[in-house]
Amino acid sequence: MRAEALSKLDQEPRSNPGSNMADQDFTDLTILKKGERTYPDSPEKTSLESFPNRYAHRDYVIEFHCPEFTSVCPITGQPDFAVITITYIPDLKCLESKSLKLYLFSFRNVGMFHEEITNRILDDVVRAVQPRWARVRGKMNPRGGISIDVTAEHCNPGFILPETRSGKG
To answer: Residue 23's pLDDT is what?
Structure first.
């Protein structure tokens, strides 16, 4: 299936000045097209959307930085604040940023521990775009004088990160 998708991508022009991504049909991107301002109140009530990676023939890194992530403590209900960074090497699909923004916003009133939040985000990103490699870092603001920094990673079996490949570095 991956080989067929890569073959299809290879047949599409990448540098044609008269063709750009805006010319494509993105019917799967339902959230980006909506003009409404409704915000989901839990991750279960939203979805992460994707679009085809036109450069699946190469490894490159995409990073999202969310400096205003909020959730609540599952025990006290007090607000928690964090910086969430999502870094990944896409395979056949890329994450659409507006759906990601609404997805992250949906944690605002959800009571979860920091470790659970970070791993949940990673699981959902992997489910949505099946990246070659992904890392989610949750750098939580101090609560009770202690800050928590949680990092979770995913790597497809057999994929070797570019910086660890022999002969490079």
So the answer is: 55
**Distance from C-alpha of 56 to C-alpha of 138, rounded to nearest angstrom:** 27
Instruction: Give me the active site residues, please.
Output: 73, 80
Rounded to 5 degrees, what are φ and ψ at 141?
Answer: -65, 155
**Is residue 12, in this structure, part of any structural domain at all?**
no
Structure pTM? Answer: 0.79
Residue 99 resides in a domain:
yes
Q: What pLDDT, on a 0 to 100 scale, did the predictor assign at position 80?
A: 94
**Residues near 92 by beta carbon (within 8 Å), at least 6 away in sequence:** 2, 5, 6, 9, 52, 53, 56, 130
Range of the domain at 143: 49-157
Express each pLDDT in 77-109 by its tens digit.
999 999 999 999 999 999 999 999 999 999 999
In Å, how far from its chain's centre is CA 94? Answer: 8
More confident residue, 106 or 24: 106
Maximum alpha-carbon separation in the chain: 57
10 in a domain, yes or no?
no
CA angle 91/105/45 to nearest 5° reads 80
